[in-house]
Design a protein that fits this description.
Number of helices of chain A: 2
Structural class of chain B: alpha+beta
Largest sheet of chain B: 5 strands, mixed
Shape of chain B: globular
Strand content of chain A: 35-45%
Largest sheet of chain A: 7 strands, mixed
Structural class of chain A: alpha+beta
Strand order of the largest sheet of chain B: 2-1-5-3-4
Distance between the termini of chain A: 32 Å
Oligomer: heterotetramer
Strand content of chain B: 15-25%
Helix content of chain B: 10-25%
Order of helices and strands of chain A: EEEHEEHEE
Shape of chain A: elongated
Order of helices and strands of chain B: EHEHEEE
Number of helices of chain B: 2
Radius of gyration of chain B: 12 Å
Radius of gyration of chain A: 15 Å
Largest interface: A-C, 26 and 26 residues
Helix content of chain A: 25-40%
Number of strands of chain A: 7
């Protein structure tokens, strides 16, 4: 299982990079993509995002999340890729894929991974607006 | 002794470009490093309650002792995904 | 919202066909792929699957599932594509994608759609084994 | 009157190729169509408890009346996805 794919990617994430989780024994594959939206949560027009990461600790966090998902949900294969740097609206900022023999474990593991990533991975996001100064936005 | 200091997101913008490292007495704790940082960059004070401090990439308690060459990282609330 | 993609596809499903759900306002995209596995649930070696559908009622069922998902989970865009005919191991048999402003609704809607599809869509699956006669397998 | 009969999966294999349509008295109910089907294809009997019957693409109750040209579909437990 050591061959899961965990990556920080400069620029937009290519969503296919997480497809490697599927194989002949793991037929249920759930993929989450976080795509840069043109609206912020408070409705302001967004023109882009910038991501920053404390790189090594972030990758270590991805690894810890994958191990925890396996302990909780059994035989699941996971891949996580997160963008760093400048992104435009429509770009993929994060891709998480989980594969399992059946869909329940794949859904649970994929959801667990993105929830935990957003809760604790040392990554930060700055929203660039059509009007006004850019602002760092936390997940809290 | 000397410890490197890095910060992220808004804290990086507050810290830059003035500060890259910190001179501290031998055996200083994380808490003492923070007090020194606040003295040098008062704007940091407002963020104390929401930020976390990592030592060599791992979250550190304020009573953790530092050694020469350590890396301290100031981590604001995360915003990944 | 009438432009969701609902399809029965002859032969393997191209997973990209459900990517149409994402747009600038719906940044959380969850995709489920059901890939033909090389093992049946009772461990027998599988060499392929054949799917049959009562086509019009199946498509109508997909539409009903999408409307229900919107009532339950709010502003979600959904796409469903299911294969009919002969499939080999590794082929995609079903793809369901859901897009929403945030990931929770996208996960819930995607999971609801595949669970309901498997529970009630008039589609049938025959497992072809390396050894022995093929067998129809129900989801019950 | 005459109703078309289709079936899926294992039931199709049982029904084929012998039977495509069913002649029934005017106003016959779904239940009566089933009785006739069982008479013509006894092997269907074992599946009665697990199958559903659709009339013109929608699940039909056994007391639903049929009209000429209707399509009856025998649906075994589903296996999609």
């Amino acid at each position: 299982m050591a061959d899961e794919f965990l990556a920080l990617v400069r620029g937009p994430v290519d969503p296919r990079c997480v497809d490697c989780v599927a194989n002949d024994a793991h037929g249920g594959v759930v993929t989450f993509l976080g795509v840069v939206r043109d609206r912020s949560d408070d409705g302001r027009a967004v023109v882009g995002l910038t991501y920053e990461a404390y790189e090594e600790p972030a990758l270590r966090e991805f690894g810890a999340i994958v191990s925890e998902a396996r302990r909780r949900f059994g035989d699941v294969r996971l891949a996580i890729a997160h963008a760093i740097g400048e992104l435009e609206v429509g770009d993929v900022a994060v891709a998480v894929a989980a594969a399992a023999a059946h869909r329940a474990a794949a859904f649970d593991a994929c959801r667990y991974a993105i929830d935990e990533l957003k809760r604790r991975a040392p990554i930060w996001k700055k929203e660039l607006y059509a009007v006004g100064d850019a602002r760092w936005k936390s997940n809290e | 002794m000397n410890v490197r200091v890095i910060a992220f997101a808004n804290l990086r913008e507050i810290l830059e470009p003035s500060l890259r490292s910190l001179d501290l007495p031998q055996g200083a704790l994380v808490a003492e490093a923070w007090t020194e940082l606040e003295r040098l960059v008062p704007a940091l004070r407002a963020h104390r309650s929401s930020l976390r401090i990592a030592r060599n990439g791992r979250i550190a308690g304020s009573d953790e002792p530092l050694v020469d060459g350590d890396e301290l990282a100031l981590l604001p609330p995360v915003g990944g995904g």
